[in-house]
Amino acid sequence: MKTVDTLIFDLGNVLIDWSPHHLYDKVFDDKEKKEYFLRNICPMEWHAQQDAGRPVQEATDEKVRENPDWAHPIRAFYARWKEMFQGPIEGSVDVLRELKESGRDRIYALTNWSAELFAQSIDDYPFLNWFDGRVVSGEEGINKPEAALYKILLDRYGIDPARALFIDDKEKNVEAGRALGIDGIVFTSPQQLRNELAIRKILP
User: Fold this and answer.
1) How far apart are CA 180 and CA 8, in angstroms?
2) pTM, two decimal places
3) Using an 8 Å Cβ cutoff, are 82 and 120 in contact?
4) Could you say which residues of the chain have pLDDT below 70?
5) Nearest-angstrom CA–CA distance, 190 and 81
6) Domain final residue pick, 67, 84, 101
């Protein structure tokens, strides 16, 4: 097995705590109504279209036309976007900091994130500037787990997949990387990540 010289991090729910529930727990008093809304009105499949580059205003306006009775919570989805965040996942950020302070380079980000919304968020999380490069789905017009997005990262930064390790909270995204020859960790907690990196002798 080749030595790992490249680390690739997902961002949401690996380094940053993000969930629409953080916002909609405040919007809805009725839990069942909230669950219905997030399952049927503004599900993750809809949000993924914006992660792939669709303008958020266009998506919002169309969704309101289709569901006028839900106009207020639909408009809140992107108008109150930052309320979906609960801040950094500190233990994961500590791992990233240790990797950088150890002198390791070739650390990249590969994220499903609307380009417009990423631009709004980057200043809130200084560690997003610690990477040696990043690929944001909304800037490329394609999402994980599509192989083409991974290939953009590999080609842009000259990454040998056999020397890379990808960390993502979704198994399907890690499996897509493995199909291209990239070893992967399905993230569940900062301590689990630290243990996995120690096994691979990337952290002590």
Assistant:
1) 14
2) 0.96
3) yes
4) 1
5) 25
6) 84
